[in-house]
Model the fold of this input.
Amino acid sequence: MSNRPFRLITSQGRIGDRTPHAIAGARACSDMLAARLSTDASIVGCESEHQVDDWSVCLPAASETLNGLARHVVTAIDAGSIPLLSVNTCSAALATLPAAARSIPGLKVLWVDAHGDFNTPETTDSGYLGGMALAGACGLWQSGHGSEAVASNIAIIGIRDIDSAERKLLEEAGVTLMPGPIDPQAVLSFIGEAPVWIHIDWDALEPNHVPAAYRIADGLLPDQLRSLLEAIPAGQIAGIELAEFEAPQDAAERDKALAIIGNIVEPLIASR
Done:
């Protein structure tokens, strides 16, 4: 069991958001975690409107938020804390993941997501920054926010929606792909005794559990994901990043989704 405290970090700046409720979702999830942990969150960035634009436009616009998130991650790690991030989009990982990899030798990454997020400026059809986040963190293209994540140390869990060119890049880079159902023993074998960074995009779940920007059928069930997180030794957890929660405007629906999120991540935070 680890006795390291969490440092709660919350993104409120637009990072390529194309949907209207991800920033609110990051704040709502952060508030729930803050209440459970009896702590305060460090807020990074200023809220702005979503829009559909190309990665080349939204990336420089997000620079201040991305740099701020990276600084908070490094500060937390240097202080002996575990970064616990509630972010609006997976694009945050362009900065957070390289920052963590620079600070933590041998870091393994469990990227829980329906998508690979492994496109580059040359392969993307949509121009969506979030679909390029993991590839950028691994240095397949230069985002300006670091490239220290090691592709062969990454496993994508729940992946099931991959572009053909993206699949080729994933295979060539040596990323481990683990489509559902989850095999906790295979995941534990992958991480070995290494420190682990856990990134969760809520579209990894079967739709109708936690609202996310994309609805991809045949996803993970909440209890399956909770069981996986419960199996990971607490002492190996180096950081947690929760992304892409589209907060419902209806309060009852929002509270229901937050209860599911809280139940899933409880094994990670209950012992602290």
